[in-house]
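Supplementary Methods. Inverse-folding protocol.

Structures were first reduced to a discrete structure-token string of length 106. This string, shown here, constituted the complete conditioning input.
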């Protein structure tokens, strides 16, 4: 269950990071409210997950999911470049997340 909560926390990190583009510097109410709610929910889920998961692993996985997911969202939503080097680096981030998961027992 804690790995599921960590995955939800990572997904919510993607939501709030991508949501920042839509807030227009926090001048638009609904995008800002959704972004803030996703931030709080992400931290809450991370906090629940670290009750049993190692902190260093959980934090690295959370930021890795957020980093890779936000980069993919940038490509999909904002026409950011999808070069071979960039995609290779994203793959390496995902491989590192998988490695951290596999190296943790709980």
């Amino acid at each position: 269950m804690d790995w599921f909560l960590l995955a939800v926390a990572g997904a919510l990190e993607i939501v709030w990071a991508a949501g920042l583009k839509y807030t227009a510097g926090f001048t638009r109410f609904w995008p800002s409210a959704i972004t803030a709610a996703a931030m709080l929910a992400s931290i809450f889920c991370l906090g629940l997950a670290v009750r049993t998961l190692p902190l260093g692993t959980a934090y690295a996985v959370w930021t890795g999911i957020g980093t890779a997911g936000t980069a993919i969202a940038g490509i999909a939503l904002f026409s950011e470049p999808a070069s071979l080097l960039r995609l290779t680096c994203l793959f390496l981030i995902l491989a590192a997340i998988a490695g951290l998961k596999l190296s943790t027992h709980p």
